[in-house]
Backbone:
């Protein structure tokens, strides 16, 4: 999944965009994962009431 | 069904926090991407060219160098290769002269509204050929038809002559109209096009360097 870096100018976003991993998939994953945590926290709050 | 209030999906704080997270993250990301892009597209210097440092956008003095377009197996598309020095309109242009000529070319491309028909770096129309890599088009090489047609012996002179009198030369099904481009403006435009062809566009436009024969055979550069 992590290929050798081939872009002209080294960039953090370029690194996330190598091989089958696209920036879109990466960023959506990063954005969605903390929402599980927010969900669990809110659920615990509701159940605690 | 015992307690409907237990559903997180109907909880307003959940949606509020999710929205705040997504909006906040996206805002920071967009600001970061802006600065990341600025670094990638900032123009190189003459020293970079002399030292052979590869920049996505080379300095204006790149017009003093030969520019080739070669398939890079590593990157899976073609990349501009800045080669040996070659005269541009019979001379070597200094840093100031090259910048001035390129600026004139840019202003001319805007005042003559090239993008009304052509595409430059992905912006514009597809009524006329894409100009992003026009400088590298084999039709302007010594093997192509444009040098004999315009009676010129170099690529830049042939392009400039065409730009001054475009309606005289049959190039395309939809012929370019005469836009009243002066000799100086034409020089500027050719410099502008040469510089643009040296910009690393990650292989855009795709399949640019396919020849007519390759198109007929369906040959692809994509390996």
Residues:
């Amino acid at each position: 999944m992590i290929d050798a870096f081939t872009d002209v100018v080294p960039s953090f976003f370029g690194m996330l965009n190598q091989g089958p991993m696209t920036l879109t998939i990466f960023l959506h994953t990063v954005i969605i994962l903390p929402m599980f945590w927010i969900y669990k926290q809110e659920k615990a709050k509701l159940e605690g009431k | 069904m015992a307690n409907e209030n237990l559903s997180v999906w109907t909880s307003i704080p959940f949606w509020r926090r999710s929205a705040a997270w997504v909006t906040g993250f996206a805002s920071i990301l967009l600001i970061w991407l802006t600065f990341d892009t600025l670094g990638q597209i900032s123009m190189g210097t003459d020293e970079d060219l002399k030292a052979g440092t590869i920049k996505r956008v080379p300095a204006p003095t790149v017009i003093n160098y030969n520019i080739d377009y070669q398939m890079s197996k590593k990157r899976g598309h073609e990349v501009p290769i800045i080669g040996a020095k070659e005269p541009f309109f019979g001379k070597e242009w200094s840093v100031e002269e090259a910048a001035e000529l390129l600026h004139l070319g840019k202003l001319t491309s805007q005042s003559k509204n090239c993008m009304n028909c052509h595409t430059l770096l992905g912006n514009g129309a597809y009524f006329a050929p894409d100009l992003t890599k026009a400088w590298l088009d084999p039709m302007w090489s010594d093997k192509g038809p444009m040098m004999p047609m315009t009676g010129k012996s170099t690529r830049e002179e042939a392009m400039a002559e065409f730009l001054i009198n475009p309606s005289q030369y049959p190039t395309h099904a939809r012929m370019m109209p005469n836009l009243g481009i002066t000799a100086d403006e034409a020089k500027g435009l050719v410099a502008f096009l040469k510089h643009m062809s040296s910009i690393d566009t990650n292989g855009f436009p795709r399949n640019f360097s396919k020849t007519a024969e390759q198109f007929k055979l369906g040959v692809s550069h994509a390996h």
